[in-house]
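User: Okay, second chain of the day. Same drill as before: sequence in, structure tokens out.
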Amino acid sequence: MAGPGGAARQVRWAAPLGDVTYGAPVVAAGRVLIGTNRAESSGAERAGVLRCFSTEDGRLLWEAVHSKLADDAEDDSTIGLCSTPCVAGDEVFYVSNRGELVCRDVRDGREIWSLDFRARLGVEVNQASASSPLVLGELVFALTGNAAHPRTGKVRQPQAPSFVAVDRKTGRVVWQDASPGGRILTGQWGSPSHGVVDGVAQILFPGGDGWLYAFAPADGRLLWKFNCKAHEKTSPEGEPETSFSLVAAPVFAGHRVLVAVGEPEAGSGPGALRCIDARGRGDLTATRELWRLGGEDFNDSISTAAVHDGLVYAADAPGYIYCVDLETGRRQWVHDAKANIWGSPLVADGRLWVQTADGDVLQFALGRELRLLIKVPALPDAGHGTPVTAGGVLYLTGQRHLYAVGG
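Assistant: Same drill. Structure tokens below.
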């Protein structure tokens, strides 16, 4: 198998997961943590599971099991724990399939605290809770997953918070925001981002109404907002053309913010990749868009973009991979992977890595010219995933196994 730099690499180990895995692995302190489910073939009751493996040999160190909710509409029985965990110091933070923000000791998996969004904040989720928490100082930021009910399409708890800032040590809610209110289109499966623009810290909340909100981290004061669905047509009743919202995490690149529009399993449609000037205040929709790819140039996407050396690397759901000039938005090249892409591009070791839904891993040269260096055939059961590198090892996620390659 080909690894970083094009050298021949071998699979070091393969660790068993459940039978459905959508989260990305996180590597820290000699451990690999990843959300999955409990396989139906195990004979045990379905559950969401966070598993922690040794980076050395793939040995299971500990796991945290979260039973499924009774209502399949809130906690789809066919999927597991979708949140990508966040490790800070000796603690790991994640959102469980039950709509809980959980803090555990990364060394032994001991629970330190848990905040139940449903019981404590009145949140109702749609199919799954999937936000990946962000730790900044003494605060943890996460989307609660408040959603429209899948059977009625109505938001039954519009006053419930969609976004929270929580004390890292205690799990106490410091501030909360319910800006999307009753305008949530389906679910809220995005993740927050942090950046500093002109000396001002910003926390970005990708809302389920298709708006991107920027807050002051300490107190939740709204700095600016942007309607990322402004390109869509609307019905006479004012309804948007699609249910696409913001699943991909927004990315800061200096004063610019890049964010893609889409939805899992929605299929191709009028998505967009937007570049926003984050130096403004208030509603920036009409004044601060620097450029946008859409229409025939970009489809719906749930992939987080990667930025390197003045270039943006992005992927859309139908399977096209793009290289775009960060300053102008001009497309430099595009490659058809001929398979859907849900994972995000990775820039590492002077290369661009992308994994397709078929499990193939594509390695490109960085730069303004399209050069596909290697296409690594799919490992057994590999599928949707985001490649991750750490310590010279490439980690690839399959539906049923986590692979460590190289080293």
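Helices lie at 117-121.

User: Thanks, on to the next one.
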